Amino acid sequence: MEEGTLKSPSHCEVTYAEGQEGDTDPFQWDTREDCEVRQILDRVADKWSLLVIALLDRRKLRFTELRREIDGISQRMLTVTLRQLERDGLVKRTVHPVVPPRVEYELTPLGGTLHTTIRSLVTWTERHQNEIAAARATYDAKEAAEAAAV
How many other CB atoms are found less than 10 A from the CB of residue 88? Predict the structure, then answer.
């Protein structure tokens, strides 16, 4: 068994080889499908989850309002996304006892901390979008030149 490898295949805690304390190995969690970290990252990084979390920042919305705001999402996908976010403790669902029932969704305090993290990622993207566009153009031009040379 390799140094730093856990004996239990379902255990996802990061282990370190001698002298590497503090360095994390992203493949430690990424290769195990039963790992909680991977499952959580898959959930919160999903495009629909990101949009729902962004829309619920500091406000409550009804299901129909969310559906109207999120272009391209089906009713079923929005239902599944909201249920998963609620299960994970990121979204709170409140049913008001009126006829017809009124259901509102809002971020929990935990969901609010995730929104802060997502906002940081969006800010980074906005700051670097021109650099990324230039890198893509350079890459595409190189690929086209190589394809033409063949």
Answer: 17
